[in-house]
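pasting for the record
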Amino acid sequence: MSDPDPQNTQNLMRANATDLQTAAPQDLLPTSKMSNVSERWDIAWAEFGREYPGMKRISSLTAFLVFTVLGQSILGLVEYLFPFLPLSAWPIMFLATTVFAQMFIGHFSTVAYHRKNRETVEAFDKLLNAERSRNQRTEITGRIKEIYFKSRYDGVHVTLRAVLTNQRAAVTIQGYAIQFTDGSGEYSGEDIDASDYSIVRKEPSASWLLKRESWEPLSDLRDLNTTLFEQNTHREGWLRFRLPKLHYLNAPKHGSVKLEILDALDRVYTITISDPWPQTGYIALTSRLDDIPEAKPSKTRNKRPPKKQSK
């Protein structure tokens, strides 16, 4: 039986495509394993059939017998017709047929080796081009961790906290858009600055009679728009919108929200969320929270700069 993969290319083809960009050129070539004579003959005969399919009509074993015995048969016929032929003609003919067979094996097995090397390198090139093409595309995903609604005289105000992840090429963000959908229709939102607001959350208390709260200023996600969004990084922040054509006596309890992220290449990425709305507190103007202590900053959130005290 012949080795179906004499150049040992299958393991190389299963390599991780992302590792190909840092691979040395010599690593892209398959490693050849030593084959015995019968395996090399099978490889040569198969390559001969690729180049001359019209001449390959028999198996490799039959072809070997033909190449080996044909010369002896011809010599036997000549010896029968010319009985005085020198005895040295027999070893000469045997040597000639053996050399011819070895030349056949050496030539076509070498052609097969170089062809498989070429095909392997071409396959690696395709993998490299596909990986580079993927890395040149942006792919932003994320989710909405919190969302709050406030009904006002000029429409419904929406405040949400989003976490975004860029899994591909680095890019900057142009802006964000929002759409709210409920049974009455679809409503588009307008941007509102989030820097003047804070999130107020309950703090654990020793007694249920004692109510304790703390607030944390909202970090506007739009402040990072001009900062390059690197590959395999994430960013988190708050966004505020106003839905001018949507009017509720109270905050909407049902519906769905679609957040659209527009990057610098005019590609749009969508994050959706439906009720029930994830909430951990409420949104309030920071200027009205003098009686509530500010929460201690955590490693994942940005604290508002301290106020300068007048001398």
